[in-house]
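> example.struct
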């Protein structure tokens, strides 16, 4: 009887804590997405979160945000993309494309790569992702040099580098399919 009572109290406590933290966690995630959109696109004055489109790709979803300036001129597209080919599993990126398909910037949203190695894909930790800026995948092969591409891999972290390229490539394929 005591064990049942303890289990009920613990379960109720977990339920209450879950309800209390759900909304703040959702708001923090939305803020992180909004911040990433601002980092990967040139200045805009709409709210890209109000222009969300989703594209089912490879068993998951790529989310597309369109940024415009006053007058409705599109300044770019932010793509929340993914790959499951990371050394530590799933990697999520925000890739900003200019209207002509040029990559403006890439921001890492989420990963579980090895600290000190694969986590160097994050622009705060190394300049790896900067090599994508200003490149148009039409003539910049999104693969590491070992695989015949144009990307310099992170030293001792080829798997993470390949995963990063895979996620950017997936975003570019979606970019090519959207109506502009």
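> example.seq
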């Amino acid at each position: 009887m005591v064990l049942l009572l303890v289990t009920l109290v613990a379960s109720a406590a977990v339920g209450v804590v879950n309800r209390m933290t759900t909304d703040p966690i959702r708001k923090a995630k939305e803020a992180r997405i909004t911040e990433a959109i601002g980092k990967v696109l040139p200045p805009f004055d709409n709210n890209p979160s109000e222009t969300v489109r989703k594209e089912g790709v490879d068993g998951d979803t790529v989310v597309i945000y369109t940024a415009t300036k006053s007058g409705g001129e599109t300044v770019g597209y932010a793509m929340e993309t993914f790959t499951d080919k990371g050394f530590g599993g799933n990697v999520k990126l925000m890739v900003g494309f200019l209207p002509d398909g040029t990559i403006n910037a890439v921001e890492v949203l989420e990963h579980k790569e090895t600290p000190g190695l694969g986590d160097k894909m994050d622009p705060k930790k190394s300049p790896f992702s900067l090599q994508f800026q200003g490149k148009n995948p039409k003539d910049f092969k999104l693969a590491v040099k070992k695989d015949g591409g144009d990307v310099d891999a992170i030293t001792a972290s080829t798997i993470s580098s390949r995963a990063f390229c895979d996620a950017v490539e997936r975003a570019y394929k979606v970019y090519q399919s959207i109506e502009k």
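> remarks
The helical segments are 2-40, 158-177.
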